[in-house]
Amino acid sequence: MSVTRYRNRIRVGRALDRLERGERDLSGLAADLGFADHAHLTRTVREETGRTPTVLRRLLRP
To answer: Residues 4-46: pLDDT tens digits?
Structure first.
């Protein structure tokens, strides 16, 4: 596994934790986790999970 892939998996895991806790601001989430922008976060999450952050937020909601 490349360093970039490993780093992205860690960041996506952190994003999922925050989405599960109800994070609403995807642009702020992207900035906090070191993504270039909202689109970069969305693209990376989709590559790792097969779903967008918005869909995952709905699925993770209690």
So the answer is: 999 999 999 999 999 999 899 999 999 999 999 999 999 999 9
The model's pTM: 0.88
- Tallying the residues shown for the chain, one arrives at 62
DSSP 1-62: --HHHHHHHHHHHHHHHHHHTT---HHHHHHHTT-SSHHHHHHHHHHHHSS-HHHHHHHH--
List CB contacts of 17: < 8 A, sequence separation 6 or more.
none
Query: What's the first-to-final CA gap in the chain, in angstroms?
Result: 33
Rounded CA-CA distance 58/33 in Å is 20
